[in-house]
Structures are given as C-alpha cells and as structure tokens.
C-alpha cells in the first residue's frame, strides 16, 4: 500500500472514532446535528459526520445525531421515534406509519457540553489536528470550535 494512502486511511479512522466519541457524550433526551459535531471537532462537515454515522452509527445512540432541521436520520424515523419518546426528547408532531411527520425541537434539545466534556473535546480536536498536520508548531486550523458554545449548524 502507498504510504500516503495508509496515512489517509488512518486519518479517516481517527475522524470516525472522534465522531463516535462525541455522539457517545450526548445524554438521553438531547441531540446534536451532524454540523454541530463537525463544528465541535473543528474539521469536516455535516456530510462527513453523516457518512460516519451511516457506516458506524450502530456503535452509539445514533438517534441523538440528526439533521439540523430536526428530522430524524433517513429510513430510521420509526425507530428513532420510539427512542425519543422513551428518553423524553422534545418533538413537534407525531410519527406516522412510515416514521415521518415529526421533528425534534433541536433548539430545545441541543446538548451543551460541561467544562469537563469541553476538555475532552479539546483533546479530540488536538488529536485530529496532529493527524492532519503532524508538523510541530504548525498554525491552528481555521475551523476551531473554541467558543465553548454549540451554535446549531
């Protein structure tokens, strides 16, 4: 295998693990959007987070990560509805037979990390930066999420 390809695959695995680590922090009854997670990690975007959740979301409470509109993950609306009801996640509407017809009130349900969780998120961001740019002393990336508030992407 080409050395560059191995590094790329390692970075992708590191990113996927970081996405799942963030998803694992979200408590019952609360959610984050795909974009929120990308913002917290300071890299990637909603599509990259969605790809990770599509491939490996079953390893975590996948229903707590959704679209910025509050719509549940595609094709899983019925299953997600049951989780939201059990956890007391704030929603608008009711699930129909196809698992559609409702949205999570993401502005109300959006999770905000504690100070201890922010420190953990800082460590994740730093590991991702080092994996992407292993040059010591390199300038920080522009996508830093150091404002200590999940804005709602």
Strand content: 5-15%
Q: Provide mean pLDDT, rounded.
A: 86
Strand tally? 4
> How much helicity do the residues have?
40-55%
Distance between the termini: 37 Å
Question: What can be said about the biggest beta sheet?
Answer: 2 strands, parallel
- Low-confidence parts: 1-9
Strand order, biggest sheet? 1-2
Oligomer: single chain
Descriptors:
153 residues; disordered N terminus; two-stranded antiparallel sheet
Please write out the topology.
Blueprint: H1 3-25, E1 32-33, H2 34-41, H3 46-56, E2 65-66, H4 77-87, E3 91-93, E4 102-104, H5 106-109, H6 115-132
Parallel strand pairs: 1-2
Antiparallel strand pairs: 3-4
Helix pairs in contact: 1-2, 1-3, 1-6, 2-3
Descriptive overview:
The protein has 153 residues and is mostly helical. Helix 1 (3-25) packs across helix 3 and helix 1 runs antiparallel to helix 6 (115-132). The protein is globular, with a radius of gyration of 16 Å. A two-stranded parallel ribbon has the order 1-2. 49% of the residues lie in helices and 7% in strands. Strand 3 and strand 4 (102-104) form a beta hairpin. The chain has helices at residues 3-25, 34-41, 46-56, 77-87, 106-109, 115-132; strands spanning 32-33, 65-66, 91-93, 102-104. The model is unreliable at 1-9 (pLDDT under 50). The protein contains 6 helices and 4 strands; from the N terminus they run αβααβαββαα.
């Amino acid at each position: 295998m080409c050395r560059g390809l191995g590094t790329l695959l390692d970075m992708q695995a590191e990113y996927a693990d970081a996405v799942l680590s963030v998803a694992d922090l979200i408590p019952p009854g609360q959610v984050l959007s795909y974009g929120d997670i990308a913002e917290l990690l300071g890299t990637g975007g909603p599509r990259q987070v969605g790809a990770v959740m599509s491939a490996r979301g079953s390893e975590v409470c996948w229903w707590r990560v959704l679209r910025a509109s509050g719509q549940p993950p595609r094709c899983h609306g019925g299953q997600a509805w049951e989780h939201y009801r059990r956890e007391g996640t704030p929603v608008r509407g009711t699930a129909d037979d196809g698992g559609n017809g409702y949205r999570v009130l993401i502005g109300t349900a959006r999770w905000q990390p504690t100070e201890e969780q922010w420190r953990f998120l800082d460590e994740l961001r730093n590991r991702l930066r080092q994996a992407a740019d292993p040059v010591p002393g390199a300038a920080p990336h522009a996508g830093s999420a150091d404002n200590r508030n999940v804005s709602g992407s």
